[in-house]
């Protein structure tokens, strides 16, 4: 009976609207009580052991760097640069949204930060230019998941830390999938532009305008290149690169742009602390739940269940992708990653998958759930920022979701595509 109380406690608390970190923690403690009193005394050590990983230090630094760059108004420069590059096409502002998402992803590594920033800036601008608000929100949501795919990715840091996989390798492996997502979403925009009557841009910008836009967005666009280059060429570890990124962001935002006040820095610190605290609470709580799952051999049971369906590796990979997409519909992606990674990673290894390839597949599958109802975080952010109904956004979003699932399947079944960049740099 105790075994069934854990999922009942978790889903019951989630249904009551409790935060996911609290729900996981309470469910984990129910599981520990079922395991026996002596395990309860070991629980605090388990919690701190789950957080005591040096690579985790990179997360608050990358979040802080992104907050600084966002608060100092760098987003506007990136959008102007993206608009100069692709804004002249039919549906140009939608294309610019996608390209700007790629640039912004290399700064924040956060889908919700992208959705919030562009929901406040690009969505109103697109409306003014003649786009419907639901469509503008859908384009922003589709582009936002590029954030946690292209480095620096918080999910890659979490996965690499808990599974002992090279974070630098995961960062490198996320580059091509992120760019492919951008390309396929731009293809969807181009193919549907005439049918939807999307506005056409004013024509190709002059060379002078492109150069001016490049100057305004250059310092911001340089940050992701600087971060990734220092990691790939062995100059800095991901944690060191994250700390350097904070110093760079402070210099650009405070000294070059002169756009930061002490009040801004205080609010940035508070927001960074809150975001980091939520993520670390989920990690700590999931550590306890994961301990209970290991004790009850849940990973082995799931692996055996999947292998009982088929012994074909391609079928098993497809089932893993389906499982992640379905669970992502109803659970927070950080919690899902921390709970399921130790379950699925050994299974992928038994199928002969490279650990970096398996990690990117899992991360990308969970990223897609950020824009799928009913609990897609980016949908809620955009709905809150713009006032648009989630149902209306979702109706416009389906072509992008299907396109990104197609990219996920391509990544899952074609390992060389994911591993090309890591192999290029010997990671």
Automatic annotation (TrEMBL):
Residues 9-416 form the TRAP C4-dicarboxylate transport system permease DctM subunit domain. GO terms for cellular component: plasma membrane. The chain crosses the membrane at residues 6-35, 47-65, 98-123, 135-159, 165-192, 213-235, 241-260, 272-293, 313-330, 337-353, 359-385, 397-415. It is found in: Cell inner membrane. It is a multi-pass membrane protein. InterPro entries: DctM, TRAP_DctM. One of its GO terms (molecular function) is transmembrane transporter activity. Its main location: membrane. The keyword Membrane applies. NCBIfam families: dctM (TIGR00786). Part of the tripartite ATP-independent periplasmic (TRAP) transport system. This is TRAP transporter large permease protein.
């Amino acid at each position: 009976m105790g075994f069934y109380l854990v999922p009942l406690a978790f889903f019951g608390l989630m249904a009551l609207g409790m935060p996911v970190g609290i729900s996981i923690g309470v469910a984990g403690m129910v599981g520990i009580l079922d395991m026996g009193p002596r395990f309860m005394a070991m629980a605090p050590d388990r919690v701190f052991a789950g957080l005591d990983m040096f690579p985790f230090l990179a997360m608050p630094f990358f979040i802080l760097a992104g907050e600084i760059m966002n608060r100092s108004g760098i987003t506007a420069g990136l959008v102007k640069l993206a608009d100069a590059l692709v804004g002249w096409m039919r549906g140009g502002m939608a294309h610019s949204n996608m390209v700007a998402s790629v640039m912004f992803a290399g700064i924040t590594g956060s889908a919700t930060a992208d959705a919030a920033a562009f929901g406040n800036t690009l969505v109103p601008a697109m409306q003014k230019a003649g786009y419907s608000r639901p469509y503008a929100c859908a384009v922003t949501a589709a582009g936002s998941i590029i954030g946690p795919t292209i480095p620096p990715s918080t999910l890659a840091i979490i996965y690499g830390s808990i599974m002992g996989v090279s974070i630098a390798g995961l960062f490198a492996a996320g580059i091509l999938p992120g760019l492919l997502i951008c390309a396929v979403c731009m293809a969807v925009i181009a193919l549907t532009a005439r049918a939807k009557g999307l506005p056409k841009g004013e024509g190709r910008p002059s060379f002078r305008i492109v150069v001016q836009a490049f100057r305004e967005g250059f310092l911001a666009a340089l940050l992701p290149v600087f971060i990734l280059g220092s990691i790939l060429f062995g100059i800095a570890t991901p944690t060191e690169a994250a700390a350097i990124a904070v110093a760079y962001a402070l210099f650009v935002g405070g000294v070059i742009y002169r756009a930061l006040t002490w009040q801004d820095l205080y609010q940035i610190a508070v927001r960074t602390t809150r975001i980091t605290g939520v993520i670390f609470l989920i990690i700590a709580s999931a550590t306890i739940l994961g301990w209970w799952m290991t004790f009850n051999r849940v990973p082995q049971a799931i692996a055996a269940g999947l292998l009982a369906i088929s012994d074909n590796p391609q079928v098993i990979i497809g089932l893993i992708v389906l499982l992640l997409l379905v669970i992502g519909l109803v659970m927070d992606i950080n919690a899902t990653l921390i709970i399921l990674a130790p379950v699925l990673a050994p299974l992928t290894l038994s199928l002969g998958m490279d650990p970096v390839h398996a990690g990117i597949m899992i991360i990308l599958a969970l990223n897609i759930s950020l824009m799928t109802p009913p609990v897609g975080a980016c949908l809620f952010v955009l709905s809150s920022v713009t006032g648009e109904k989630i149902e209306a956004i979702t109706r416009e979003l389906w072509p992008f979701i299907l396109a990104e699932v197609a990219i996920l399947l391509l990544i899952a079944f074609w390992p060389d595509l994911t591993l090309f960049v890591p192999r290029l740099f010997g990671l």
